[in-house]
């Protein structure tokens, strides 16, 4: 029997269990996939938005600004990459300049600090590679970029070290409310979890979880966005995150550096053909490319190393859904978390705690214990520190991924702990082998070999990513 069961191990669920782990209660995290960050958290823009875009008075506006202010502290506490690089909303016409004025007023009303409207002359001092049509911009210095996978996993590991139970490969197939608690059916009756409260953070499946427990209170309507990831040769073209001025055609395509030195371009926006539709299209990517070249004409798309598509959890409401269910007392819905959901997630978690407390759940702080310190990552050590690590464990002296300089020791370490990787892409999300220019063409086979050896499974049993997605085929006799 848990005090709280959180369903969904994306960024909202991760932030929620992280904050719940500060309390003297029992908590479990339930996730249907084999790893965290497997949905929208895996494929998004990786941005920390300043908060000038959401309409004044909405939950999106409130939690965007509150969440943005929390990233610096959280990144230090949990040890994930975050850079406050600032954002620019570009204007290409007089109409755009009027829109920028409106965004400035909205941002001030939302509580965004440091906003300024700047002309082309000042703009080019900040970003000399901008296109010839750019006439001015809104500068938002509080905006930033983050590693969403690393953030999600770091928070969950911290929570697990504080006692949160992790239950992966646990698909919720039924929920029954008794007088005092919930019975959560797992994998069609294979097992059951009992909890006094539920936090529904199931992303694009949040409407299904709600309907299992009670009535159909909202519908999730996923929308798809497609992206380009460009090599680090393009990563220094811009230093700020560049947005295009919103228009009747949409918000436009962004161009941004990433925390790892690449350039990220996208997304477009369109309806998804179901909740598993993550396919890219030539037509959609061409729209992204043409739009991005308006902002920065010198982007060399021949240096593209990856395309991907992500799904956003739009709902049939205009705002975030952050509330106790109207039909089932004790079930807290954190749903419809579209952009700026990643930014808002830390603040949404605090609101989830407030909602849980309002249901009568006892929320005393857990007894004071010293959290394990965040270890310095090998890639961030100086040469002297690296030599000391190699002396202790020679595996850190064997480079496996040449593009990113990732060692065997780092890969082995990513497979251990309460949230160790179980797939090739799981290792990639933690320590980045296969994220460079060759996209695993060189290191991929060796990574599979290491996973096979360390997890004591056959090479053809190593998933590429989610269960059932294999890189190799084979039989027990090795054929």
Key structural traits:
alpha+beta; 21% strand; 5-stranded antiparallel β-sheet; 22 strands; 479 residues
Report on the architecture of this protein.
The protein has 479 residues and is α+β, with helices and mostly antiparallel strands. Helices cover 30% and strands 21% of the residues. The chain has 13 helices and 22 strands. The protein has helices spanning 11-20, 59-68, 71-78, 94-110, 120-126, 148-161, 206-213, 282-295, 341-358, 383-392, 408-414, 424-431, 444-455; strands spanning 2-7, 27-30, 47-48, 82-83, 87-91, 116-119, 136-140, 144-146, 165-167, 172-177, 182-186, 191-200, 223-230, 241-244, 254-257, 263-266, 270-271, 304-312, 321-324, 331-335, 399-401, 406-407. The strands form 5 sheets. Strands 1, 2, 9, 10, 11, 12, 19 and 20 form an 8-stranded mixed β-sheet that branches. Strands 13, 15, 16, 17 and 18 form a 5-stranded antiparallel β-sheet that branches. Strands 6-7-5-14 form a 4-stranded mixed β-sheet. Strand 15 (254-257) and strand 16 (263-266) form a beta hairpin. Helix 1 runs parallel beside helix 6, helix 1 packs across helix 9 and helix 2 (59-68) crosses helix 9 (341-358). The protein starts with a strand and ends in a 24-residue tail after the last helix.
């Amino acid at each position: 029997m848990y005090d709280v069961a959180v369903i969904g191990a994306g960024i909202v669920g991760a932030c929620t269990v992280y904050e719940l782990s500060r309390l003297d209660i029992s908590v479990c995290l339930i996730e249907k996939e084999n790893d965290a960050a497997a949905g929208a958290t895996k494929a998004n823009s990786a941005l920390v938005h300043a908060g000038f875009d959401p309409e004044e008075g909405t939950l999106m506006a409130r939690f965007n600004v509150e969440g943005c202010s929390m990233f610096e502290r959280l990144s230090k506490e949990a040890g994930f990459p975050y850079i406050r690089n600032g954002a620019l909303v570009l204007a290409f016409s007089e109409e755009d300049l009027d829109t920028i004025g409106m965004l400035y007023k909205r941002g001030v009303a939302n509580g965004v600090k440091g906003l300024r409207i700047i002309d082309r002359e000042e703009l080019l001092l900040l970003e000399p590679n901008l296109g010839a049509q750019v006439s001015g911009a809104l500068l938002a210095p509080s905006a930033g970029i983050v590693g969403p996978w690393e953030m999600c996993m770091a928070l969950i590991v911290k929570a697990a070290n504080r006692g949160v139970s992790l239950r992966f490969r646990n698909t919720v197939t039924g929920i029954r409310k008794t007088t005092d608690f919930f019975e959560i059916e797992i994998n069609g009756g294979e097992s059951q979890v009992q909890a006094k409260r539920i936090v529904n953070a199931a992303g694009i499946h949040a409407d299904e979880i709600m309907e299992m427990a009670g009535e159909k209170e909202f519908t999730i309507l996923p929308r798809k966005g497609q992206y380009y990831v460009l090599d680090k040769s393009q990563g220094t073209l811009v230093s700020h995150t560049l947005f295009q001025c919103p228009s009747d055609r949409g918000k436009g395509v962004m161009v941004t550096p990433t925390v790892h030195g690449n350039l990220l371009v996208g997304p477009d926006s369109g309806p998804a053909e179901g909740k598993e539709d993550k396919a890219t299209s030539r037509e959609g990517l061409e729209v992204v490319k043409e739009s991005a070249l308006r902002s920065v004409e010198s982007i060399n798309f021949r240096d593209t190393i990856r395309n991907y598509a992500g799904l956003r959890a739009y709902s049939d409401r205009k705002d975030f859904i952050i509330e106790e269910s109207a039909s089932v007392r004790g079930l807290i819905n954190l749903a419809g978390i579209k952009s700026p959901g990643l930014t808002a997630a830390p603040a949404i978690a605090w609101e989830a705690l407030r909602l849980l407390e309002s249901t009568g759940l006892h929320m005393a702080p857990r007894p004071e214990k010293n959290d394990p310190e965040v270890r310095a990552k090998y890639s961030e050590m100086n040469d002297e520190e690296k030599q000391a690590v190699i002396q202790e464990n020679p595996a850190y002296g064997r480079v496996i991924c040449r593009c990113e300089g990732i060692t065997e020791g780092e890969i082995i370490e990513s497979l251990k702990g309460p949230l160790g990787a179980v797939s090739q892409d799981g290792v990639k999300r933690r320590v980045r082998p296969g994220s460079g220019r060759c996209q695993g063409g060189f290191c991929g086979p060796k990574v599979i070999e290491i996973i096979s050896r360390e997890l004591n499974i056959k090479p053809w049993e190593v998933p590429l990513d989610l269960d059932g997605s294999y890189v190799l085929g084979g039989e027990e006799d090795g054929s």
